[in-house]
Write a structure and sequence with these properties.
Number of domains: 5
Oligomer: single chain
Largest sheet: 7 strands, mixed
Number of strands: 30
Radius of gyration: 32 Å
Strand order of the largest sheet: 3-4-2-1-5-6-7
CATH superfamily of the largest domain: Succinyl-CoA synthetase domains
CATH topology of the largest domain: Rossmann fold
Distance between the termini: 38 Å
Length: about 700
């Protein structure tokens, strides 16, 4: 979509312009007429001949000149007709008006009609139910938010107009400048994906930030966000982490929030930085607008207070960036000018009486250390601390180094002037150490993603295998079942390289035949065994008493069969040998309606939902990406030989996950899937799937 004339129009018409204070059309007209916009502005309102002394047109059609952009601030019931009458000559619209899909059934129909109008006439429509947009460098405020933010390199896209206004207010205080501020409202046509694509090409934009309550087209977003993240940092603050907030979102804007874990997995794979709250969102904005991304993971902390240095060091736990170990030569050089009581480890403690020279000399030494990508200068305003002079030395150093410099000047009034100087010179200051570490870690991690680039891991569909599984699925459907039997699931697992535990089936007719039951244990299976119900009506066997463990002999088996037959008279039963003890994992597939299949894996067993120790894979992925996820995720301890144990087989589990990932792509008919448990071993034994559930 060509959005140039939408966001950089030579002429703008305001439908619903007004002289009456408090009206939305009044605010928009003032913004366009009084803030310095150089383009031509047309005012439209059939009730007035003039507004603010300027000619007022009865309709858009009455304007004889070219109109690049029309902004509509009129009752919703008039919007579609007004656009329809002018669709041939005006191609760009901002619909401020509320009363569409965020309201009721009538509003939803109205929005659908507007979407059809846009599609049939190749229109660009921002909104409806939005604030509008602002391009500060053009002095173009095409919104009803007052004022004009400073021009800068941050683009902000918001699904909430109120949040955009609040952010502009905070940004004014923090001296953050914007290249674009865009309110998307209901995202009827222009959504996060189109705007990401547009802003990726915007030369004035260094970093793109978004507040989203839902993602409209998951497949399109996956493709575009990955392509854009390789070029520019993308930060998203995504609301809707709980069922309660998801419900609130639906009533607020008509958007549907996706599953939060799936969203996080999509972001991680695509190099999108996820801010978990507004504070982190602003911190990332501030850092990225000021600095280039750290090229090395190593960080050094320079402080004048030991306690704060320790707290800063604690903030590195679980991060990709890390504190650098000081080499002996570096320590020796620091010892030449630091007091004997100073610590020359990392954090480097300059002591509470440190003046500006200790900071400057220490920074000069750090400039020569190659494996340092970032420096955090921490300061507390002690009685003898020349706060502003230290800030000046940090500013001088920043101008001659390529390392990323941030500060944590911890205090209030005593550090305000110095912090203002730092910010004016492009140095981000954080109120607390953990904020600085979190922001640096996010920026570094994005840079690593950018350097790796995006590789095509498109999986080739195995048509023959797909046909075999499809035949099993069709048979299941014809029999009126919603899930495959264990024997059928075992065949599917074999096709995808997953070993299942040995089993014997007992059919309903066999359960009624005592002779067949008596001979059952002669079929080559050794005790102890497990007896399970095998039915699409009993998917959670433990909860429904459809599972009997530890059957030690024939007599116990006969009793178990009799009991199970009584509880489930028309169901198949399965007997399996008790698997050797190992670590129980779960592997599943979540088929998200918006984003497609996602593979879930983690600690399994009966406490899976309680522990929630799981990670997510978004296909397609290479083997190396799957192995990286295993090593760096919640199961990483299994492959690190934790507590002196022998490490588990990483490639084996990666191959298993790859098989399930292929299945999720090849067999879209599978609605739900899990192996719980998959038992893995660290003694050379092959992993085995004990229970497999395939729901269609």
């Amino acid at each position: 979509m060509d959005l140039q004339k939408l966001f950089n129009p030579a002429s703008v018409a305001i439908v619903g312009a007004s002289e009456e204070d408090g009206k939305v059309g009044n605010a928009i007209a003032k913004n366009l007429l009084q803030l310095g916009y150089a383009g031509e502005v047309f005012l439209v309102n059939p009730k007035h001949k003039k507004i603010f002394g300027q000619k007022c047109y009865a309709s858009l059609a009455a304007i004889e000149k070219t109109v690049d952009l029309a902004i509509l601030a009129i009752p919703a019931k008039f919007v579609n007709d007004e656009i329809a009458k002018n669709a041939e000559r005006i191609k760009n619209y901002v619909v401020i008006s509320a009363g569409f899909s965020e309201t009721d059934a009538v509003g939803k129909e109205r929005e659908k009609a507007l979407a059809d109008l846009a599609k049939n006439n190749q229109l660009n429509i921002l909104g409806p139910n939005c604030l509008g947009f602002i391009v500060p460098a053009l002095k173009l405020n095409a919104s009803f938010a007052g004022g004009l933010p400073e021009a800068g390199n941050v683009s902000f896209v918001s699904q909430s107009g109120a949040l955009a206004v609040a952010l502009m207010d905070i940004a004014e205080k923090e001296k953050i400048g914007f290249s674009n501020i865009i309110s998307v409202g209901n995202k009827m046509q222009l959504d996060e994906a189109e705007l990401l694509e547009y802003l990726a090409e915007d030369e004035e934009t260094k970093v793109i930030g978004m507040y989203l309550e839902g993602i409209k087209d998951g497949q399109k977003f996956k493709e575009i966000s990955q392509a854009v993240s390789v070029r520019k940092p993308v930060i998203i603050l995504k609301a809707g982490k709980s069922a309660k907030t998801q419900k609130a979102i639906s009533s607020h804007t008509g958007a549907l929030a996706g599953d939060d874990d799936v969203i996080s997995a999509i972001f991680r794979k695509n190099g999108v930085m996820r801010a978990h709250d507004l504070e982190e969102f602003f911190n990332l904005f501030d850092l990225i607008r000021n600095a280039e991304a750290p090229e090395e993971k190593g960080v050094v902390v320079i402080t004048n207070a030991g306690g704060i240095g320790v707290l800063t060091a604690d903030a590195f736990a679980g991060k990709n960036i890390e504190l650098v170990d000081m080499a002996d030569g570096v320590k020796k050089e620091l010892r030449r000018f630091l007091p004997a009581e100073s610590s020359v480890e990392n954090p480097i403690d300059l002591l509470g009486d440190a003046h500006a020279d200790r900071y400057s000399k220490t920074l000069e030494v750090m400039a020569k250390v190659k494996n340092i990508g970032s420096i955090i200068c921490v300061l507390t305003p002690q009685d003898q601390t020349p706060v502003e002079k230290i800030a000046e030395e940090i500013i001088k150093f920043k101008k001659k180094t390529k390392k990323t410099i941030v500060t944590v000047f911890l205090g209030g009034l005593r550090v305000d002037a110095a912090v203002a100087k730092l910010k004016a010179n492009g140095i981000s200051n954080f109120s607390f150490p953990d904020q600085a570490v979190q922001a640096l870690d996010g920026y570094f991690s994005w840079n690593e993603f950018r350097k790796r680039g995006v590789k095509d891991h498109t999986q080739i569909i195995n048509v023959k295998r797909r046909g075999k599984v499809a035949a099993l699925v069709e048979k299941t459907e014809l029999e009126g079942r919603t899930a495959l039997y264990f024997s059928e699931s075992a065949k599917v697992m074999e096709m995808y390289g997953v070993k299942t535990v040995d089993y014997r089936e007992i059919f309903p007719a066999d359960k009624a035949n005592s002779k067949k039951r008596a001979k059952f244990n002669l079929m080559g299976m050794n005790f102890p065994v497990v007896l399970k119900v095998d039915s699409d009506q009993v998917l959670h066997k433990t909860d429904k008493q459809g599972l009997i463990l530890g059957i030690e002999n024939e007599k116990e088996l006969q009793l178990a069969l009799a009991r199970m037959s009584l509880n489930f008279p028309n169901a198949r039963l399965v007997v399996q040998p008790m698997a050797a003890r190992g670590t129980e994992l779960i592997i599943g597939v979540k088929r998200d309606p918006n984003f497609g299949p996602v593979v879930v894996y983690g600690l399994g067993g009966i406490y899976t939902e309680i522990l929630h120790r799981v990670d997510y894979l978004v296909p397609p992925l290479s083997m190396s990406q799957i192995e990286d996820s295993l090593k760096n995720g919640k199961l990483g301890f299994l492959f690190a030989g934790a507590r002196g144990q022998k490490a588990y087989d990483l490639p084996e589990l990666a191959r298993t996950l790859q098989g399930i990932m292929l299945m999720s792509l090849e067999i879209p008919e599978i609605r739900e899937f899990d192996i719980n448990p998959l038992i893995v071993y660290n003694n050379g034994k092959q992993a085995v799937a004990v229970d497999v559930k395939i729901v269609i």
